[in-house]
Amino acid sequence: MINDLFRYVIMGHKGLDKIIALQKNPANIRNLCILAHVDHGKTTLADCLVASNGIISSRLAGKLRYLDSREDEQLRGITMKSSAISLHYAFGEYEYLLNLIDSPGHVDFSSEVSTAVRLCDGAIVIVDAVEGVCPQTQAVLRQAWLENIRPVLVLNKMDRLISELKLTSLEAFTHLQKILEQVNAVTGALFTSKVLEERAEKEDHAGETPGADQVYDWSAGLEETDDSHLYFSPDQGNVVFASAIDGWGFSIQQFARIYSQKMGIREEVLCKTLWGDFFLNAKAKKIMKGAQAKGKKPLFVQLVLDNIWTLYDAVVTRRDKEKVEKMMTSLGVKVMARDSRHSDPKVLLSAICSQWLPISQAVLSMVCEKLPSPLDISTERVERLMSVGARQFDSLPERTQELKNAFVQCSSEAEAPVIVFVSKMFAVDAKALPQNKQRPLTHEELAERREQARQRHADRMAANQQAQSSAGPAHYVVSLPAGGEGDPIQMESLAAVKEPEVEEVAKDTFVAFARVYSGVVRRGQKVFILGPKYDPAQGLNMLPEGCMASDSVPEVPHLTCCTLDSLYLLMGRELEELDEVPSGNVLGIGGLEDFVLKSATISTSPACPPFIPLNFEATPIVRVAIEPKHPSEMPKLVRGMRLLNQADPCAEVLIQETGEHRCLDDLRQRFAKIEITASKPIIPFRETVVRPPKLDMVNEELGRQHKTAIIHQVKEEAPQSRFSDTLHVDPGGLVTITTPNRLATVGVCALPLPTEVTCLLEASSELVRTLEQVNMSLREGRSLTVSPRTLEDIAHLKARLAALLQGHKWKNAVEHIWAFGPRRYGPNILLNSVEGYQRPSVWQCLDPAEKGAEPCAAALRDLDNSIVSGFQLATLSGPMCEEPLMGVCFSVERWDLQQTRAAAAATPEEEAGPGQVTRHWAGAGSAGCYGPVSGQLIAVMKEACRHAFQARPQRLMAAMYTCEIMATAEVLGRVYGVLGKREGRVLHEEMKEGTDMFLISAVLPVAESFGFADEIRKRTSGLASPQLVFSHWEVIASDPYWVPTTEEEYLHFGEKADSANQALKYMNAVRRRKGLYVEEKTVEHAEKQRTLSKNK
């Protein structure tokens, strides 16, 4: 408690005033985050930087994990939530304010990395000197690249090269060079892809027509662009070598400064030659090139690494006290006696190194020198942040484009518009808020309280003496201390003070994690909250000129007004209250929980657009259905789920709640605070059809008998349905069904889409959704503004589909696409193959001439939507286990509408134009396109699609994780064993050079992934740990309906053929969960076997 109060006094009276003063100078502000793979040392490094400000002891750095404020973070030893702290650092003549954000490294919490990266201008990327570049290292470098922030590199855990790998200083130098090459290779790949994309876009806009002899030169764009500033190189000053756990770190520049004085060589020369193939010629007293060729020690090894290796050898390995004393004297280092006598040599090592090469000084100096300030934000990044969806910056309203100057200038002037981005909402215990904390007393207040206590004690002693003098010797008087039961007035006042506090402490409060990009945010200020779908053009049209948030604002979609209740300085576990925050700073905002769900843009100008959504590396795929243990607690559960949805950037709360077990623990213990019952994880599957196999299960060529068996199977199932008398399936797989009232007949066949088309449609789902919105507005006669870029993307999608759908059966298929499904933007296609039926194309927005095209028959046009609706229902839940379809094309081959007597009496016949089929329809006058015929047509279309699907070989598609595992050679076999047991498939493995670590890449079904990480750790004694990320959907090869049909199969599998069928197991599990019929044999009344010898 005393330490907390002491820290509060230091922070409250000196540090807080200093930070508030530094917040007003954006040129000396650095907003940065720490990014790395899991267990590469982010939080340990953060502890070292926090200790440099005196907030924690330097001895506890790496052990306290100050920024891991949650209990489960401390227990598991990994960071789960990103947290921020503001640090002060003096570098040269200037003082800097560093807003540092520590982020998680585990892939399960990658959404927290996205929220941190958006608010920063730079990043410290940490790489383990032993493990090198890992999967999550590549992911964070990609996220930093996408957000256009500048990274610097820290090669951490250098001590492992000495203590674990036992490398010599020369071997370590070679190893470090290779790691740097790996990191730069990732950056180079990102840069190359960007340049080639930009060049392709320019050529598309230029509209070049390549000649017959033209050769495409891919290298030209790369040669013209300068990329030297992108890469990490110690001589550029953007690399620090460190061991955070031992408290030391250095850059090349530090040693260049030391040796320039000793050797008389210019510092600039040493900076360029300390890293690389240079050596010191002792005779000539010159630095020369070609150390490797001449067998000489490189300068970096001779002047830097050898000294560190010698220190470790003397302190840790040999424990040579005399040598240590000499080294300490030469380095000018003094350590405390208790450190030198400590039984653990690492304590002495840390004490020496933290004075000789303090890690905080090396890292913070690099940050101040190499990372940009808020004033240095690039126009490219600003334009990208303001360009929502497919809209380009140039297409935004003029007033919106003018706000770009406010971003770039990062002005804190009174007239500058306030622009703030909230990247996430995080829950804070109400007791942790500054206004609810017990405030430490000042010296004046302590003196006053002391005087009051002394006076009360004197009064009490006087009262006791008076009572003793008046009472007899046999009587004893017990006096109550002040504030006891004898002082009811004070008890009442205490109760009055404490009651609201208890009531307030009982709930969690949400604080917005945000950054100010322009203007000054003040407490009590009224602002606009702009939702992700807010359109500034629409808002400016609906709002009066010069409208402010404090005015009476008319209702505008996705725009609300609110007051900023409180502003906080984020100090890790602590929050400090502020009155105002200038531009360029990271802050916490209270009072937004009712207005912001996950992220939002805040501004005083309605012309401000919402920022582009955050880039999430991993998407949730597994669902869990939950319910309260006691039904009466349902309102608490609903409220708790709403709070969880707000607190977790990656959670998606629908009817079911998404996330991992941490989410359920948060819901149980923090948000809902009730007992909940959670179902087993709900694993999604997809249903598809494939081409008829050419080989049977014993690799024999199939004859016609297998195909006959499939058709026979469908015909056997058909009579059981209610369409038995109206259903016909021909040998080609064409299913024809007539409606119960005999007015309409539909013929449909199903085809498997090529895998490339399925992947393209899945990747372009947002574009297909936009295409459907445009078509709907054209059908309804509404005008919808579409940007030229969106039209280009749609045209590109159409061209790619046409290129992929080649062959006789796909002739002109792209032009005949009727709809996409399910939900009108899924990876399934409905084709219009009805002879003589011309309907508007789905690509009509690309060709204005098609907009006026009329279908051949008005009746068909009226019921056109019924066919589409039936297709959407069929693709949403397939016949195998009611899961969505994927990669299936349904072609409508026939659609007839018959005339009845009633129809003839109701409406006259409608004759089609020349060359078109005559169609008749009943009931147009009475019910229109929403009558009974429409409903029956929807049902018939759905059943036709389902039966057409069943007429083809059916398969399940499983969701697949990519699995990256780092393991040592001795446990490699056990890792393979666990993967094989869980239906995993190893893609490739590679050995990390210079180590005994293997990096294994595999794919694993999501359905088999539960408990996988724990089993891997148990089997390998903790030497291997997997990272799972959802990757793709994969067809399960086995047929769930397979039965032996050929003689060879009967001989091989037997008549029962009851061997394990993975697809059937998954399908039955889903059907059982959904309450569908499952065909399985169960033994109800089994007789116990008895032996002749004993009657058991």
Distance between the termini: 71 Å
Mean pLDDT, rounded to whole units? 78
The Cα radius of gyration reads 36 Å
In the predicted model, the low-confidence regions spanning at least 5 consecutive residues are 1-13, 208-214, 472-506, 655-662, 704-723, 849-860, 900-928
Tell me the number of helical segments per DSSP (H or I, 4 or more residues long): 33
> What's the shape?
globular
Major sheet details: 8 strands, antiparallel
Structural class, by secondary structure, is alpha+beta
Beta-strand fraction estimate: 15-25%
Which percent bin holds the helix content?
25-40%
Strands, total number? 34
Q: In which order are the strands of the major sheet placed? A: 14-13-19-10-11-18-15-16
Multimeric state of these chains? single chain
Organism: Gadus morhua
GO molecular function: GTP binding; GTPase activity; ribosome binding
GO cellular component, one term: cytosol
Protein name: Elongation factor like GTPase 1
